[in-house]
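To whoever is on call:

I kicked off a structure prediction for a single chain this morning and the downstream step that reads the tokens threw a length-mismatch warning. I double-checked the sequence; it's 467 residues and nothing unusual in it as far as I can see. Pasting both halves so you can look.
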Amino acid sequence: MVPLVMDQSLVFDIELIRRYDKSGPRYTSYPTAVQFHTGFTAEHYRAQAQRTTRERLQGPLSLYFHIPFCDTVCFYCGCNKIVTKNRARTVPYLDHLYKEVALQGALYGRQRPVTQLHWGGGTPTFLSQEQMRGLMAVTREHFMLLDNDNGEYSIEIDPREADPSTIALLRELGFNRLSMGVQDFDAKVQLAVNRVQSEEQTFTILDAARNAGFKSVSLDLIYGLPNQSVHSFARTLEKVIAVGPDRLSVFNYAHLPEMFKTQRQIKAEELPSATEKLAILQNTIERLNQAGYVYIGMDHFAKPQDELAIAQREGSLYRNFQGYSTHAECDLIGLGVTSISMVGDCYAQNSRDIEDYYQRLDRNELPVLRGVELTADDKLRREVITQLICHFEVHYQTINTRYGVEFGDYFAREIAELRNMQHDGLVRVDDNGIYVEPTGRLLIRNVCMVFDRYLREQKGLGFSKVI
């Protein structure tokens, strides 16, 4: 067992951050999606699903549903989405999603409990209340959903697409966790990114979630947007702290207009300078620390009594495509266009084109477009990266016992590459393991990148900056 990690402190060293601020993966998976290929087919995925179900007859499942529709486009967004005012477009999408639920359910059976469920997007509440009821009913028909409120059933909310009756319905359907996009309350910033959202809209939904008995409410902020400054973002932050969300995500805006068309509508000259952006982050971290939040990692903060913070201290925190989680033992099934599954020893991604997604399901096929089967080396490196990114340390003996290797020999090159980071105070390396110091925690992606074999072999893959 991993020893308790009682120190969840964080140190902001601006000189080190500037020196190490380069592009790299976010490690929601390893190997990352860059390694997915079309040689991996639906039949490969089916074989993995059948094998893991044989081996884990009652093993828990995690379900992710991608609802891609949005009423308006947020210029900063890099998600797979369909921007439309036409609500009728949800009808064929749900018809096909129901087909996929049935196909996937047949692979796993109803004996495996769904301990984690998430609706993301897009905007899940773009669906009507009747449609939301229908989607949950079809899911329940093919999977064993929990009725005791012990699962982690979460949904992403756009406050502009919900009201208190929506929140009450979601709670009735079994959702008990909610994340809500805020980004920034400053009017000038909102206009620049085409997301005009009042404080009243936001806090009305937050109050409704608490009144309905949601166990956790998380708010999302983004720093680095056009027209932001330390002072303007601090005003937003104070308003957020005042309402006391259980969790906060403070994301770095990565301006990649060559990859995301909608970002081309953002004026580059209005973006804060690199110096201002770092100052915004520094002030945010200091203020959240003063307000009692602890740094979980990778842009995420939580109150000390939150499940994520507790799981990190106890060594049971995990990370997957839904972010940080307390459900490490689940096979994750992605449903809907572009969704990614993590099942057995594979990752499988559905078609990213809506028409192709429909056509595959019309042929009664699983809509898997590409994926990858993990090698023994992949699984070993994934474990090391997961331990680092979740707990800021990895213990050699744990890895040696679990994977039958001698860590010091297997990763001799990587340990040598960590020397500069050790010299700079980012990590401590001894005969027992690797420990990320408070100074290095904001740069955890850099530490993980040392163990990424594919990144070593393939340079310049277009990842976002780590800060």
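Update from on-call: the warning came from a stale cache, not from the record. Cleared it. Sanity check on the structure: Residues 1-6 have pLDDT under 50 and may be disordered.
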